[in-house]
Amino acid sequence: MAPEPRLIPLARAHLLREFPNLSNAQWRITSPFDRAYNCFAWAAGECQRRWEPGIDYWPRGVSVDLTMECFLQAFATLGYHPCESVSYEIGFQKVAIYSESFMGEELPTHMARQDLFGRGWLSKLGDLEDIRHRNLSDLDGDQYGRVTKILRRSVLKAVTLRTKALLIKSN
Amino acid sequence: MAESCITWDAENEWCPKSDEKRWLARYPSKAVPDGWVERKPITAHLDVFVREVPPPIERIFRDEADKWERETVHLSLTARKVLHPSYQAIMSMGPAVVPILLDDLRKTKRGWFWALKHLTQVDPVREEDRGNVDKMIDAWIGWGRKEGKLPSGS
Prior knowledge:
Chain A is of the alpha+beta class. Chain A is built from 4 helices and 7 strands. Chain A has helices spanning 8-18, 39-43, 68-76, 155-170; strands at residues 27-29, 81-83, 92-102, 105-114, 121-124, 130-133, 146-154. In chain A, strands 1-6-5-4-3-7-2 form a 7-stranded antiparallel sheet, sandwiched between helices. Chain B is mainly α. Chain B folds into 2 domains: 6-49, no CATH class; 56-146. Chain B has helices at residues 20-26, 57-72, 78-81, 85-91, 98-108, 113-120, 133-146, and strands at 13-14, 36-39, 48-51. In chain B, a hairpin with an 8-residue loop joins strand 2 and strand 3 (48-51). The radius of gyration of chain B is 21 Å and the shape is elongated. The model of chain B is unreliable at 1-9 (pLDDT under 50). Chains A and B meet through helix 1, helix 2 and strand 4 of A and helix 3 of B.
């Protein structure tokens, strides 16, 4: 049977088991269980398809390796560029890349998107629910590693790209 | 005895004294047939015989698939999920598991795309449908029907 939405207390208990840092954090579930999209798609602002190099959708012209460079290139197509600060900046949208070290390379494992009004971060947890969590460190640990890259784009750039995409689609 | 590859089930468990007619119908000589062994009875007045049978591939698949999902459903990266021992165990069943994967894919939408691609050496998903789970499933189910891996009416 296709998965059905879980009761929130059950979902919370499960997520607390997998992500122990959440036990001392402010967080809440913001969507039901859904396999239709994943964290990379959600960071890119999509919930109709999954993003992942080599398996799912991946921007055209970007290499399909599982490397940090490949993820940076993919998000550059959406106007994102690396920055230093995780803090909220008016007029900018930010995403964070979690990674873990694998044979000397940083392997991206998860992505989170900053709330447009700076009220924390939005994460899709695998096939499970979306959550809004206050700090990026709330998901640090064995499952996702830790945040090693922050990217940002201007909201103006986001609107321009979105309008352009809609125009191309309508033609 | 490796528990993971041996199973007991009701079909293969007999209590001759409590079900003597059935037992005698099948084994008139009353002798214990080859492949049957005596098991310590739960109650003293019963003789219980059991037969070792390998579990059907569907049951192994279901156990491994449920374990895989339980332990990786929160992970984001498919490339990490497929390295789980249960996913690898399913892959090691070879092409025989393809119909089961297709059936499970249709029912649960679990991520068997990677396994299917590697076991069949084909990828029926169109480039523009990549990432769209429903369209990817449709492509695989269509392929399965065309190749006779799924009953055409199912």
